[in-house]
Amino acid sequence: MRLTIVGCSGSFPGPDSAASCYLVEAPFEDRTFRLVLDLGSGALGPLQEYIDLRDIDAISLSHLHADHCFDMSGLYVVRKYHPAGPPPKIPVYAPPGSDWQLSNAYGTTAPNGMTLPFEFHDLVDGLETTIGPFTLTARRTPHPVEAYAIRVENEGRVLVYSGDTGPDDGLAEFATGADVFLCEASFVESAENPPDLHLTGADAGRIAGKARVSRLLLTHIPPWTDRDEVEADLATTWSGERALVRPGDVVEL
Fold first, then answer.
1. For the Metallo-beta-lactamase domain, which residue ranges apply (predicted)?
2. Tell me: the pLDDT tens digits for 225-244?
């Protein structure tokens, strides 16, 4: 299983990164299966550095904030109007109502045009499903809108993506034994942070420690946040293998 960091800027695209987008690939039926985790603002452009957009096999959207889903509008155009003709529908696993919300964001009219290139499936707490070579499991997380952490398993290897979340003791159980824990760290300990919104590096380290993960990767750091401070916060709670991801990073699991 291979993870590519396409975009990792928190809350909005930064000068050197698109918002959240992660490409997960694994062999499947004599080819490579491509799962995209989130498709946030600005991500559709750099995603094309790694794959043809028509080769996406499935998408999972952790939640419906713009920095995690708004480039679905551009992908809609690609998959509906490409000169080579529309490819088959691809499954999109997302919170209930995503089809209409994304349709409204693009500006399609009834009947729901967003369902022409995409087949929507509801993410719900505890969902476990098979997508190509992957087993995908979802867990609801504390956030102002309905949001999910995603666990992706393939041939005994485990990637857990936190999505956006406030501090959550249950997330450690969900991430238990992960080979890679891709965890948001939008806040710093020195600030007065609102509850149930995001994590600090220290929060992420505590969760990783309880979960006994092999490798912790921090993501979703906003452009206005000092990465060195996030890393210093992390060092107070986690001494294992770690990194603050950047666009273009490739991780083999």
1. 18-202
2. 999 999 999 999 999 999 99
For residue 37, CA distances in Å to 21, 109, 146 come to 6, 26, 16
The pLDDT value recorded for residue 92 is: 98
Q: Domain map of the chain by residue range? A: 2-252
Weakest mean pLDDT among 83-87, 133-137, 223-227, 236-240: 83-87
For residue 99, give Cα distances in angstroms to 61, 86, 156, 234.
Answer: 11, 18, 32, 37
SS (H, E, C) 149-198: EEEEEECCEEEEECCCCCCCHHHHHHCCCCCEEEEECCECCCCCCCCCCC
The CATH homologous superfamily of the domain defined by 2-252: Ribonuclease Z/Hydroxyacylglutathione hydrolase-like (3.60.15.10)
